[in-house]
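Following up on my earlier thread - several people asked me to post the actual chain instead of describing it. Fair enough. Here it is, all 383 residues.
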Amino acid sequence: MDQASAGRRTRTVQIGAVTVGGGSPVVVQSMCATRTVDVDQTVAQAHQLARAGAGIVRIAMDSEKEIPAIKEIRAQTKGVTLSVDLQENYRIADRVAPHVDKIRYNPGHLHHIEKSKSIEQKVRWLVDVARDHNLAIRIGVNCGSVAPAFLDKYPGDQLKAIVESAAYHCDLMDDLGFTRFVVSLKDSDPLKVVEANRRFAERRPDVPIHLGVTEAGLPPEGIIKTRIAFEKLLAQGVGETIRVSLTLPNERKHEEVVVGHQIVEDVRAGKFISVPEFGQGLNIISCPSCSRVENEKFVEMAQQVKELARYAAKHRITIAVMGCRVNGPGETDDADLGLWCGPTTVNLKKKDKRIGFFSYDDVLGRLKTELDRLIAEQSAASN
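Reply from S.P.:
Thanks for posting it. Predicted structure:
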């Protein structure tokens, strides 16, 4: 899909062999769910995603111990455009930069590292690394990890905080004379994704946007959530790259790419879904499995939660299932019930309050108890 034909034309950003923006076709990308230290599996999945049509393949870096692995992965994936997700490890950017085509940093993960340095200093260093190694940058703002400075500045208005955080980091890039960057503004609510990206696109029509509904969850519901956002935005010319974030086992991870291409093709052909009652009842959000998942039972847990909660389908309750310490803490806080899956136990939460830690075998029983309690409270309130 040519975004210029939809009325918006951004600057061009080169990411390895891939051109983003400037009227180029929408680029579909995905992310490896394998452990980065497992070189063979990660290389295999990178090729799996690329064969399915992923223009960019992202890999997460959980620690500096994975630097030798990313070097070897690069050596075995010469034909794949690689992006590295730094998350809370921005300080290792210079050591992974020789082996990738793009670095992604989260503005919400900069404030608590090297506190003696300003955000401006940290971003300047990242830009210097990108320049030195001929890399592009993605500024990736997520609903569950918005920088505290912006949450404090716009209390009660997370949407504005997300947009302003992204715009501020674009201003830093401008001040540094760096133009080779894209931006993403993600939320698990597709309507918030639409509004945040609309606002940002109006604010910065020159900047290419990467679209994503974070923690869309299991198919088919996760696909519907994603389509709700992508159809509206792509049809208006907003979105130069996309990623469909589904909770899937490793052998099916390429389905994200297939679905992404189908959405792009359908929008080009004028085919749109209509699900008028979608989102009015139970909402289960779960992150796409990635290398940070601490227990492979996470995907199975998400599926089990979906089955267990079917009886609550008509109730406006949100259950979040997260697979790592990066997404677990912040992105379960707004859910009515949240499961943050660790290596051996699951942290069960109600909003931002911890109920307790439970084994993978025991947590579902306690989840049902809490779900029944919420349903009873809702019923009592409506009478």
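The chain has a mean pLDDT of 91. That should answer part of your original question.
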